[in-house]
Amino acid sequence: MKQSHRFNAVMLCALLAMGMTSVVYADAVTTLQDEYRAAGAGPFSASAGEKAWTTAHKDAEGGPDRNCQTCHGTDLTKAGKHQRTGKAIDPLAPSANKERLTDVKFIEKWFTRNCKWTVGRECTAQEKGDFLEYLKGL
């Protein structure tokens, strides 16, 4: 293969891979939001998601109030840090972390864990749809 053809093939693969990341991201978010709509939620609001993101909740064990920013920080394009364990948390914004919001099971797993830890209960379909609407705009 000629050098210029090899370069063009590499560039084409790179462009396709970038485009496929967007498709995967859109598919996972769309799939979940469609499931939430089927459960009676919607329409989804980025502003409601942002408000819920910053709302403080009482810790059932008497610790300091928590919100999503407690661990993820205020700039979701930057890494966060778990309040209790100190473990680093990769950026949540899909624009800064191409792996975010690409896997339906992974998203649901972390909604379950984080909602229980932060809010003290599982989030509703409406809340999750609003969160996704907020996050996909970042």
Layout of secondary structure:
Layout: H1 3-38, H2 46-54, H3 69-72, E1 80-81, E2 88-89, H4 104-118, H5 125-136
Antiparallel strand pairs: 1-2
Helix pairs in contact: 1-5, 2-5
Could you explain the architecture of this structure?
The protein is mostly helical and 138 residues long. The protein has one domain (3-136): Cytochrome c-like domain (Cytochrome Bc1 Complex, Chain D, domain 2). Helices cover 55% and strands 3% of the residues. It contains 5 helices and 2 strands. It has helices spanning 3-38, 46-54, 69-72, 104-118, 125-136, and strands at residues 80-81, 88-89. It has a two-stranded antiparallel ribbon. Strand 1 (80-81) and strand 2 (88-89) form a beta hairpin. Mean pLDDT is 84; it is low at 1-25.
Low-confidence residue ranges? 1-25
CATH level 3 topology: Cytochrome Bc1 Complex, Chain D, domain 2
- Per CATH, the class reads Mainly Alpha
Q: Into how many domains do the coordinates divide? A: 1
Measured as a percent range, the helix fraction is: 55-70%
CATH architecture: Orthogonal Bundle
- The number of distinct β-strands equals 2
Number of H/I helices: 5
Task: Work out the radius of gyration.
Answer: 18 Å
Essential attributes:
single chain, 138 residues, mainly alpha, Cytochrome Bc1 Complex, Chain D, domain 2, two-stranded antiparallel sheet, 5 helices, 55% helix, disordered N terminus
Put the structure in a nutshell:
This protein is 55% helix and 3% strand. With 138 residues, it is mainly α. The N and C termini lie far apart (41 Å).
